[in-house]
């Protein structure tokens, strides 16, 4: 009899707790939308994901401003493959983004990408 009573109390308590958590979550979302916190968080994410600068791209690949496109691609191939085999996906993606950034710069400067 006592076990049944305890079980009922646990079930009722967890139901009440679940509803309270859900209500608090909804209220938090409502407040975030009112205060613009959600929009601010989204804009911060967008700001952080902007394309890297040419200087940062050159630092990632370890090349100078006088490097040719062929040198850029050689560095890219080596770094990309090294990180694909036993490196990190994060570094591999940084290397790829650096190549994309410099590709746009070299196309703009009519130095070619072949």
UniProtKB/TrEMBL annotation:
The keyword Membrane applies. Signal peptide: none annotated. It is found in: Mitochondrion inner membrane. One of its GO terms (cellular component) is TIM23 mitochondrial import inner membrane translocase complex. PANTHER family: MITOCHONDRIA ASSOCIATED GRANULOCYTE MACROPHAGE CSF SIGNALING MOLECULE (PTHR12388), MITOCHONDRIAL IMPORT INNER MEMBRANE TRANSLOCASE SUBUNIT TIM16 (PTHR12388:SF0). It holds the Pfam family Pam16. Keywords: Membrane, Mitochondrion, Mitochondrion inner membrane, Protein transport, Translocation, Transport. Belongs to the TIM16/PAM16 family. GO terms for biological process: negative regulation of defense response; protein import into mitochondrial matrix. It comes from Musa troglodytarum. This is Mitochondrial import inner membrane translocase subunit. Coiled coil: none annotated. The lineage of its organism: Eukaryota, Viridiplantae, Streptophyta, Embryophyta, Tracheophyta. It is a peripheral membrane protein. It comes from the Eukaryota.
């Amino acid at each position: 009899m006592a076990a049944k009573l305890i079980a009922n109390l646990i079930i009722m308590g967890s139901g009440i707790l679940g509803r309270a958590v859900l209500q608090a979550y909804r209220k938090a979302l409502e407040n975030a939308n009112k205060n613009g916190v959600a929009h601010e968080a989204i804009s911060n994410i967008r700001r952080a994901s902007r394309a890297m600068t040419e200087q940062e791209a050159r630092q990632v690949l370890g090349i100078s401003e006088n490097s040719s496109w062929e040198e850029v691609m050689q560095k890219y191939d080596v770094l990309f493959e090294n990180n694909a085999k036993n490196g990190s996906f994060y570094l591999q993606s940084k290397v790829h983004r650096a190549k994309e950034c410099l590709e746009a710069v070299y196309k703009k400067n009519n130095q070619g990408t072949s």
